[in-house]
Design a protein that fits this description.
Largest sheet: none
Number of strands: 0
Radius of gyration: 21 Å
Length: about 400
C-alpha cells in the first residue's frame, strides 16, 4: 500500500510541476488533463502493439479502489477543509438560497436526469432500468467547485456568487449521497419503500449526520478553547474528521453532512473564540495544503481511470446527449430559479449563467458510480459518468472564467 501511495504522490507531483512550468492551467484541471492525455497515448500505443506501459498503468490503477478511497477516506477531509473556510455569518445571509439549491435543486435534478435518461435509453437501445436511471441522476447531480472557485476569484467575481456556489456544493454532496443510498436500498430491497419509511430513512441519514456533526464540532470547540498549542489543535481537528466520519458510517448516518456541519462550527465559532492567531494561521495552512494535495491526487486518478473503461460508438453518442441533459437539468434547477427570482436570490445579473456553467461534476460522481453492483448496467453508468465529469472539468472548467468576465462586472 505504501508503494502505491508513493507512486501516485510522485506522479501527481511531477504532473503538477509540468502543468505549472509548461501548461499553465488551473492546478486541478491541469493535472487531470495531462494524466488523461498520457492515458490516451498509452491506449494508442497498446493498439499499435506496445503493451508494456499500458499494462503497467492498468495494474497501477486497478491496485486502487477509487470508490473506497474517496468515499471512505478523502471525502471527509475534502468536505471539512472546504467547510472551515466558509464564513457562517455570510452563509446565514444566503441560507435559504443555498438550502433551496442544495436540497430542492438536487432532488429535482435527480428526477429530471433520471426520467430523461430512461427515455434516452429506450430510444437508443441501451435499455437501462428506470431505478438505475434515477440512481445516475442522484450520483451526477452533486457539483465540485474546487476547480472553479480559484478561477472566479482570479477574474474578480462577486463574493456572494462564490459563497452561494461553495455553500451549495458543500451541502449538495451530502444530499446526493443520501438520495443515492436511498435509491440503492430500493434496488437491493424486494419491496418498494413506503412514504413514511422513506421519510424516516432521510431523517435518520441527513438529520443524524447533521446532529453528529454539531455534537462533535462543539466537543472539539471546547477542547480547542481549553489549550493554546497549534500542534495539538491541528491534530485534534484531523482526528475529529477521520474518527467522526468512521463513527458516522458505523451509526449509518450521513458522513458528508456531519463533516460539513462540524467544519462550519470549528471554522467559525472555533476560529472566533477558541484559537489564537498562531493556531488559526497554522490550522488554515495545514487544511489548505491538505486540500490542494488531495484534490490534485483525486484529479490525477480521474485522468488515469480512463484506461480501464471501454467505449462504443453508441455509448459515446448517448454520452453526448447525457452531457446536454445534465447541463439542461442544471439550468432548470439552478440557473432558471436564480434568473427568475433574482431579487430574492440577491445575486448580480448574470449569476445564473455562472452558477449553471460552473456546476462542475467531480470525483464523488465517479466514486458513487464505481460503488454500484457489478454488471453491464454498472459499466454503462460508470462510462457515462466519466465522460460527463471529464467534459465538465475540461470544457466548463476552462471556460467559466471567460464567461464570468463577460456576463458580470468584476468587483473593483
Amino acid at each position: 500500500m505504501l508503494n502505491v501511495v508513493a507512486i501516485f504522490l510522485s506522479i501527481t507531483a511531477l504532473l503538477a510541476y509540468f502543468n505549472r512550468r509548461y501548461v499553465g492551467l488551473p492546478p486541478a484541471i491541469g493535472v487531470m488533463a495531462i494524466a488523461l492525455v498520457l492515458s490516451l497515448l498509452n491506449m494508442l500505443a497498446d493498439k499499435l502493439g506496445f503493451h508494456t506501459l499500458s499494462l503497467l498503468e492498468q495494474s497501477l490503477v486497478e491496485s486502487v479502489d477509487f470508490s473506497e478511497l474517496l468515499m471512505q477516506g478523502m471525502l471527509s477531509l475534502l468536505l471539512f477543509a472546504g467547510a472551515i473556510h466558509v464564513n457562517l455569518k455570510q452563509l446565514r445571509a444566503y441560507r435559504w438560497q443555498v438550502a433551496s439549491l442544495a436540497v430542492i435543486g438536487t432532488a429535482l435534478s435527480t428526477v429530471i436526469i433520471g426520467v430523461a435518461l430512461w427515455g434516452i435509453s429506450l430510444l437508443t437501445g441501451l435499455q437501462l432500468p428506470f431505478i438505475y436511471c434515477l440512481i445516475f441522476g442522484a450520483l451526477i447531480s452533486p457539483t465540485d467547485p474546487i476547480a472553479v472557485l480559484g478561477i472566479l476569484s482570479a477574474v474578480g467575481a462577486p463574493k456572494n456568487v462564490e459563497l452561494v456556489m461553495s455553500g451549495e456544493s458543500l451541502f449538495n454532496d451530502g444530499v446526493s449521497v443520501v438520495l443515492f443510498s436511498l435509491l440503492l436500498g430500493m434496488l437491493a430491497g424486494a419491496e418498494v419503500p413506503t412514504v413514511s419509511g422513506t421519510a424516516t430513512l432521510l431523517l435518520r441519514e441527513a438529520g443524524g449526520g447533521a446532529l453528529l456533526g454539531a455534537l462533535m464540532g462543539y466537543i472539539i470547540y471546547l477542547m480547542l478553547k481549553s489549550i493554546d498549542s497549534y500542534q495539538e489543535e491541528v491534530l485534534l481537528t484531523l482526528a475529529a474528521v477521520l474518527g467522526g466520519y468512521a463513527l458516522a458510517i458505523a451509526l449509518e448516518v450521513s458522513g458528508p453532512l456531519a463533516m460539513v456541519v462540524m467544519g462550519l462550527i470549528i471554522g467559525n465559532q472555533g476560529r472566533s473564540s477558541a484559537m489564537s492567531e498562531e493556531t488559526e494561521r497554522n490550522l488554515d495552512m495545514f487544511w489548505e495544503l491538505l486540500d490542494e494535495i488531495l484534490n490534485a491526487v483525486l484529479f490525477v486518478l480521474i485522468g488515469l481511470e480512463v484506461i480501464l473503461l471501454h467505449f462504443t460508438h453508441t455509448l459515446l453518442g448517448v454520452a453526448g446527449l447525457v452531457i446536454l441533459l445534465t447541463l439542461a437539468a442544471r439550468l432548470l434547477t439552478v440557473g432558471l430559479p436564480v434568473a427568475l427570482l433574482d431579487s430574492r436570490f440577491r445575486l448580480p445579473k448574470g449569476a445564473w449563467a455562472v452558477l449553471t456553467w460552473g456546476g462542475l461534476r467531480g470525483g464523488i460522481s465517479v466514486a458513487l458510480a464505481l460503488s454500484l453492483p457489478p454488471g453491464e448496467t454498472r459499466d454503462t453508468l460508470v462510462s457515462l459518468t466519466y465522460l460527463v465529469v471529464v467534459f465538465s472539468i475540461l470544457v466548463q472548467g476552462t471556460s467559466v472564467g471567460k464567461l464570468t468576465s463577460r456576463v458580470m462586472r468584476p468587483d473593483k
